[in-house]
Amino acid sequence: MPVARIVNSILTSKWTKVVVFLLCLMPFAVLAWKVFQNDLGANPVQFVEHWTGNWTLRFLIITLCITPLRKLLKMPQLIRFRRMLGLFAFFYVCLHFSTWIGIDRYFNVHEMWADVEKRRFITVGFAGFVLLIPLAVTSTAGWIRRLGGKRWQMLHRAIYLSAIAGVIHYMWLVKSDERKPLEYAAIVGALLLWRVGVWSRKRWREQRQMREIQSKEPTTAETA
User: Fold this and answer.
1) Residue 214: inside a domain, yes or no?
2) In 3D, which of 31, 136, 29 has the Cα closest to residue 88?
C-alpha cells in the first residue's frame, strides 16, 4: 500500500480525531495531577496562569499551522483537526482567564478593572481573549452557512490578531528571560508572512488574469 494512501487512511479515520482530542487534553490532565499532588511550586496561582497561558499560545500556533501544512504537504485532510485545535485554544484561554478572575482576583471587579487600566500586558491579553470569543461561537457548520463562506473566513482571520495579542501579552509580562516569548513571536511572524505571501500571489494572479482578459477584448470605436 502506498505511503500516501496509508497517511490518508490515518487522517480520515474517526479514531484519529479521538486520539488528537485526548492528546489535546493532556496538558489539562498534567495540570490536574500537579494540583492533586500539590506540586505547583512556591506560587501555585502564578504556575497555573503561566501553564494555561503557554498552552493557549501553543494551541493558537498549532491551529494557524494547519493551513500552511495541508498545502505544503498536500494533505487537505488536516483541515479536519483545525476546529478542534482552535476550540482547545479557547478552552485553555478560558482556564487562564478564570484563574485570574477567580483565584488571583477573587472576582473583585474593581481590582480587575484597575489591573486592565494599569497593566498593559493584562489589557492586551484581555483583548486577545475577547477576540477569540466570536471565533469559538461561530466555529460550527451552521454559522458558516449563516455568515457565508467569505464573511466567515474574514471573521476567523481574527485568530492572527489574537495570536499577536497573546505574544505581546507574554513579552510584556516577563521581566528577565524573554527567549520563550521571542520564540513564539518568531513563529507567529513566520505564519503571518506566509499568509501575506499567499494573499499577494493571489492578488497578482487575479490582476494578471484581468489584464489578459482586457487585452483579448476586441477593439471597437468606443474603446479605440
Assistant:
1) no
2) 136
For the chain, what percent of residues have pLDDT higher than 90? 44
For residue 194, give its domain range: 3-204
Closest CA to 53 of 171, 199, 151, 197: 171
Distance of alpha carbon 68 from alpha carbon 13, whole angstroms? 22
pLDDT confidence tier of residue 218, bands split at 50, 70 and 90? low
**pLDDT (average), residues 158-181:** 89
The mean of the pLDDT values for the chain is 86
Q: Give a yes or no: residue 155 inside a domain.
A: yes
- What pTM did the predictor assign? 0.86
Helix axes 82-98, 120-137, angle to 10 degrees: 140
Residue 58 and residue 88 in contact, taking contact as beta carbons nearer than 8 Å: no
222 in a structural domain: no
209 lies in a domain? no
Say if residue 31's pLDDT is above 60.
yes
Contact (Cβ atoms closer than 8 angstroms) between residue 116 and residue 130:
no
Other CB atoms within a 10 A radius of the CB of residue 81 amount to: 19
